[in-house]
Specification:
Keywords: Disulfide bond, EGF-like domain, Glycoprotein, Signal
Number of helices: 1
Strand content: 35-45%
CATH topology of the largest domain: Agglutinin, subunit A
CATH class of the largest domain: Mainly Beta
Helix content: under 10%
Shape: elongated
Distance between the termini: 31 Å
Largest sheet: 5 strands, antiparallel
Number of domains: 2
Number of strands: 29
InterPro entries: Bulb-type_lectin_dom, Bulb-type_lectin_dom_sf, EGF, S_locus_glycoprot_dom
CATH superfamily of the largest domain: Bulb-type lectin domain
GO biological process, one term: recognition of pollen
Pfam families: B_lectin, S_locus_glycop
Radius of gyration: 23 Å
Strand order of the largest sheet: 1-25-24-23-14
Structural class: mainly beta
């Protein structure tokens, strides 16, 4: 989620209501002998993130998620069973005999969600730990070999240190997908990916199969369509890794010692917001958004069209001089993606 930075901060209103219990003792690690049940929590060592069961918005369903533990509004950063909710409080998250993290509901013989890895190791030496960067890591206790991690399976939130893009060794492609709504974390209409089919990768935002926005190509120091991210004044930075092993991007804070919470979120309306909150603050601020406005959407006015925001009521698309809408009926419905063609009598009609 790449951002244009603004001088003013906007207030983020609460989108989620988490039903969280209180605890006497905190732990950051799950073992085969110590599962967590609905009402239990894992809390990272620095108490930055928590993992447990939650109910979003006005829903009554229960999900396993990771959220900011002490940040304002405790926003959710990752959801395990996003398309398979539990309808009661019978949920249990455990490490099974095969070394997988498995989520069960009332039927303890049928899993609702699983990490679905294959390992020959004994489950007694496999642990799952919630780290202070918000990553749930399943690993071998003796060697610290990572078997699975939630950072490889993001939902709608891009955290500092998390990668988007393709691991060419495993074939894993990490993408963001929006929630269906503030009440339903299921996979929504929008996806945010790193396009790896080019020698010069760029970030694409899709609405279904339609390209909605793009960042411009990587120019060595940033994304060409977002020059503010190449500036030293930006509080965030992106890096690109492009080799025979991977094509991926990662972001971080230029001042890692600062007492800040930060996240990039793809919402259900197709906007990517960069949020920041000081540890002492009681609210999140929006530091930037893409697409910036309606004219920032990819191909908004089609071929030979131009886009200019006039006011809240006028259509922003017009044709270049000497051209007219290819489909007047679509333009009257404010859909200009078919673009413009040469006016009749004005010479040879241009083809797209």
């Amino acid at each position: 989620m790449i951002m244009y930075f603004t001088k003013g901060f906007l207030l983020l209103h609460t989108l989620l209501v988490l039903l969280l219990p209180q605890f006497d003792a905190l732990q950051d690690t799950l073992t085969s002998s110590k599962p967590i049940r609905d009402g239990d929590l894992l809390v990272s060592n620095g108490e930055t993130f928590a993992l447990g069961f939650f109910t979003p918005g006005e829903s009554t369903n229960r999900y396993v998620g990771i959220w900011f533990y002490k940040a304002p509004e405790q926003p959710v950063a990752w959801v395990a069973n996003r398309d398979n909710p539990i309808t009661d409080t019978s949920g249990v998250l455990s490490i099974d005999l095969h070394g997988n993290l498995v989520l069960y509901g009332e039927d303890q013989k049928k899993s609702i969600w699983s990490t679905n890895i294959v390992t020959n190791s004994n489950d007694s030496i496999i642990l799952a730990q919630l780290t202070d960067v918000g990553n749930l890591v399943l690993f071998l206790n003796e060697t610290s070999e990572v078997l699975w991690q939630s950072f490889d399976y993001p939902t709608d939130t891009f955290l500092p240190g998390m990668k988007l893009g393709l691991d060419r060794t495993t074939g894993l492609n990490r993408i963001l997908t929006s929630w269906k709504s503030k009440d339903d974390p299921g996979i929504g209409n929008f996806s945010f990916i790193l396009n790896t089919n080019s020698s010069s990768p760029e970030l694409f935002l899709y609405k279904g199969n339609i390209l909605w926005w793009r960042s411009g190509h990587w120019n060595g120091i940033g994304w060409s369509g977002i020059p503010t991210l190449s500036s030293n004044d930006s509080v965030m930075y992106f890096n690109l890794f492009n080799s025979e092993y991977e094509t991926s991007t990662v972001w971080g804070l230029r001042y890692p010692g600062a007492s800040l919470f930060s996240r990039l979120v793809l919402n259900g309306s197709g906007s990517i917001h960069r949020f920041v909150s000081a540890i002492s603050d009681q609210e999140w601020d929006i530091l930037g958004t893409v697409p910036l406005d309606r004219c920032d959407n990819y191909g908004k006015c089609g071929a030979f069209g131009k886009c200019q925001i006039q006011n809240g009521t006028e259509f922003e698309c017009t044709c270049l001089t000497g051209f007219e809408p290819r489909s007047p009926s679509e333009w009257s419905a404010r859909n200009a993606t078919s673009g413009c063609v040469k006016k009749h009598g004005g010479g040879i009609r241009l083809q797209e």
